[in-house]
Amino acid sequence: MSEHNQKTLADLSAAYNPAEIEGGRYQTWEEAGFFKPTFDKLESFSIAIPPPNVTGSLHMGHGFNNTIMDALTRYHRMKGYNTLWQPGTDHAGIATQMVVERKLGLEGVTRHDLGREKFLEKVWEWKEESGGNITRQIRRLGSSVDWSRERFTMDEGLSRAVQDVFVKLHDEGLIYRKKRLVNWDCKLKTAISDLEVENRDEKGFMYHVRYPFVAGQTDANGASLDGKYMHIATTRPETILADGCLAVHPNDSRYTHIVGKMVHVPLTDRVIPVLADPYPDPEFGTGCVKITPAHDFNDYEVGERQNIEIINLMNLDGTMNENCPPAYQGLDRFDARTAIIADLETYEFLEKVEPHELKRPYGDRSGVVIEPLLTDQWYVKIDELAKPAIDAVQNGDIKFVPEQYTNMYMAWMRDIQDWCISRQLWWGHRIPAWYDDVGNVYVAHNEAEVRAKYNLAQDITLRQDEDVLDTWFSSGLWTFSTLDWGNPNDDGRVLSTFHPTSVLVTGFDIIFFWVARMIMLTMHFVKNEDGTPQVPFKTVYVHGLVRDAQGQKMSKSKGNVLDPIDLIDGIDLESLVSKRTTGLMNPKDAAKIEKATRKEFPEGIAAHGTDALRFTFASLASTGRDINFDLKRIEGYRNFCNKIWNASRFVLMNVEGKTIASSANPNLWELPEQWIVSRLQKCEKAVQTAFETYRLDLASQAIYDFIWNEYCDWYVELTKPVLNDETVSDERKAEIRRVLLATLEAALRLAHPIMPFITEEIWQIIAPMLGLAKAGDSIMLASFPVANAQRINDQAESDMTWLQSLIGAVRNIRGEMKLGNAVRLPVLLQGVTDEERASLARIESQFKALAKVERLEFLGNDEKAPLSSSSVIGQATVYVPMKGLIDPTVELARLNKELEKLTKQYDQIANKLANEGFVAKAPASVVEAERAKLEELEGQIGKVKESVEQINNM
């Protein structure tokens, strides 16, 4: 690239403007192919993005999750790995079908009006027009995924993989079809997974019902049961009509004498037995429970054990079917409940009704109460698949970070049930099963294959199963299906290079629904060269949920959702209010949400930029814990970006157009250079360790502390007087300029994985000045800094700590005495050790320059200081003589305040040491340290009292 294209200081605007530097940068990266993987490195790193729903919009969870994944990806890319971050989206069966059905509804059309094929055409049309919103937003976050490999769970390759897996599992006897109980959504008319069920706390009622004994029976003791009854309590009285038995615990002595006796089912002509089963809890209620196998999951298990009649009461739309007494047939389930309660009361079966707090299950998409319902569904037989998946975690092939989630995974896996994989939808992977007219089932990729596989004549009529597969089935294949597994035209290079993937980054809420199923399916279908099962990933990094500043879960209904794009670009108050109050499930909440929003964001939300948002997410990424997102924190990191920008501009102003040393010359380094280079090595080591242990919070803290507190606040300040000093050699100034630039350049590379935009913008100016890059090179392909232990200088760090303490003491005195910076102060030091005196000889020039000290003198330990304002550092005291400088009254107030603080500290430690329990139980080293502190405080108090006495004697 030609020289005139090299960026300069003039390309950095006077004020930091994230929109200006972020706009267009991502497109440049993408078009240059920087996100694409290489295949020529020794080590490889890969992540498969948890596929967001194609219907979705970016939320804070995506922002948090993507920040972690991108930081890890950029870090390993800079470390020289073959790096692939595999992107893609999920077809989101229910969500997508609902969106399109709602759109058609506005036109007065239903999917049934169109028919299956025409409806699916409409879904694909919608997907092409609107389905890319989430991927556009992911780009806004700076996520460096390889878009050239973007996949969709319904694309041709992934659909083929889904069919292959289904057919193979069925052929192996691991997929079967059976009538079993499922979570049934009566509005959507489909089975749904537990994850799609939202349990809400509600106030309901407990109905106490009598079940009369059949006449003519006697109990085990020979007593007549005529006129007696069993007492049960239920929150769902409509299910009484399908009861198969009453159950009591076999050890419950209250009922042992009536086990096996028959009772009438209220409002029906059926009689059912009283059976002994371990399910009822004798301590809860009456200890007797009604068992309705077709409408309760626990009851279904009892029904299977006891082999009792299973009666389904409901149609797929939640209306009562022909198995009910005629009076209730055709009624909606809740209307039937009302009628049944009235009839129970009329016929004196109802004993009482009590208020009762309960958890009621709702479909998270439909908003209707979920009904456990008996339907024909397809299932995966789990036991055989689960064992290798348990072993992989137990033997360490897969590690959870943090470790606590291993226990959660194990608990689920050891209590795992067969998996219902069919859904009664049209959008999704249609189940590759066909039926003939007599109900035989045939499974293969297509009808032609069915006929060949099962030797069926052409005149046998076949119809394909109407159901589709659970979305989690296709996403369970995600790590390997996206890498072209099973593609006959693929050379296998991508799969062999990047599988197993390195890490899965996910929330704890889908460890079972997604993580466990990925492990099971991957290990069954993907093998290592030696034929052993291959895991889908080596590490599962589990992060917490993003909550609001008060720790509340973000939800549309609470009106506390933050949109990451609004935090990046900003949003005015009226637009924010409109966004939060539009489309609410309960429109009555709008006024409350509007009031809260106006109170919390009176000015709307300011623009903070992507880098500040990402740095905020990283700073909160302490593994596994939920995070409370406070706007003040992102404001602070917006200021951090501003600090980096302004410091870079200052450095460039002082080096651009001037001589810069071409290589490091430590012989020209003085304390500031020795110190900052040493601190840089320790920061580099800390950041690398943090990345390797998935502690992005520690990485961001180390970067922040080094850049702001050490480089900007100290080193840059220390260089100012030297660069402006005409007596300093040109050679040393050139080296200082190089250290200024080189330290900043390394810090930018350290920060790049978390803050990609601002670091790229500044690095492209600085790196070429150091000969580390040419115009057009990218920081994302530069090497990640590696600490050099030989550059660590403990003496320089100790000297600098002493210098900082001295400067801080003088600045505090200057501030307390309200003396301007222009006044150069005389300083006296007393109680300085030989080591501190030696150090002071090395730092005296910097101390005088930065603290604006006119002269520096030492007092002997026995010498009395003149009336001075003082500050204590350890055993040493810094004095600034007051004569001609201070108001004695103000200084006396300051000293008394200092005395009060020291006395309080002294009393706390003295009381602790007076406590015999503390002295007896605490380690000897701790007790000794407390005694040493007490002695030091005693000396400090004495010196302050002496100063007070001096002023009082003036």
Distance between the ends? 74 Å
Secondary structure: number of strands: 29
Strand order of the largest sheet: 6-5-14-16
Sheet with the most strands? 4 strands, antiparallel
Report on the structure:
There is one protein chain. The protein has a four-stranded antiparallel β-sheet. It has a four-stranded mixed β-sheet with strand order 10-11-9-12. It has a four-stranded mixed β-sheet with strand order 27-26-29-28, sandwiched between helices. The protein is globular, with a radius of gyration of 37 Å. It contains 31 helices and 29 strands. With 954 residues, the protein is of the alpha/beta class. The model has no long low-confidence stretch (mean pLDDT 92).
Summarize this structure briefly.
The protein is built from 31 helices and 29 strands. The protein has 954 residues and is an alpha/beta fold. The longest helix has 29 residues, at 924-952.
Write the layout of secondary structure elements.
Blueprint: H1 18-22, H2 25-31, E1 44-48, H3 60-78, E2 82-86, E3 88-89, H4 93-106, H5 111-114, H6 116-130, H7 133-140, E4 151-152, H8 156-171, E5 175-185, E6 190-192, E7 197-212, E8 229-234, E9 245-248, E10 262-264, E11 271-276, E12 288-291, H9 297-306, H10 333-346, E13 350-363, E14 371-380, H11 383-394, E15 399-401, H12 404-414, E16 419-420, E17 422-423, E18 433-435, E19 441-443, H13 447-454, E20 463-464, E21 468-469, H14 471-475, H15 478-481, H16 493-498, E22 501-507, H17 511-525, E23 537-543, E24 546-547, H18 564-569, H19 573-581, H20 590-600, H21 610-619, E25 627-628, H22 631-655, H23 671-692, H24 696-723, H25 730-751, H26 756-769, H27 794-816, E26 825-830, H28 834-851, E27 853-859, E28 868-873, E29 876-881, H29 888-914, H30 916-921, H31 924-952
Parallel strand pairs: 1-2, 3-4, 9-11, 15-23, 22-23, 24-25, 26-27
Antiparallel strand pairs: 5-6, 5-14, 7-8, 7-13, 9-12, 10-11, 14-16, 17-21, 18-19, 18-20, 26-29, 28-29
Helix pairs in contact: 3-21, 11-12, 11-17, 19-20, 21-22, 21-24, 22-24, 22-25, 23-24, 23-25, 23-27, 24-25, 25-26, 27-28, 29-31
